[in-house]
Amino acid sequence: MTNHCCLRVQGIIVANSEGIPIKSTLDNSSTVQYAGLIHQLVMKARSTIRDIDPQNDLTFMRVRSKKNEIMIAPDKDFFLIVIQNPSD
């Protein structure tokens, strides 16, 4: 029996707090592109949340487009990126 959610996952990336990829299931070019751009997005979102409430912090982001869904779990030293096909 195959798990449906695993069929949707296109790639997984672990990057350090500076957006440098550490591990990935994607090709190098895609990994570097996603990690760099997602890092910028996380930094902007984190800054926005802290501007609203300095006691708060970003814990999870989910971005959905027509082609895919990107889930981001930032932490102090690392962040996890999961790219998957959106569910219908």
TrEMBL record:
It is found in: Cytoplasm, Cytoskeleton. Keywords: Cytoplasm, Cytoskeleton, Dynein, Microtubule, Motor protein, Transport. It holds the Pfam family Robl_LC7. Residues 2-84 form the Roadblock/LAMTOR2 domain. GO terms for cellular component: cytoplasm; cytoplasmic dynein complex; microtubule. GO terms for molecular function: dynein intermediate chain binding. Its main location: cytoplasm. This is Dynein light chain roadblock. It comes from Astatotilapia calliptera (Eastern happy). The gene is DYNLRB1.
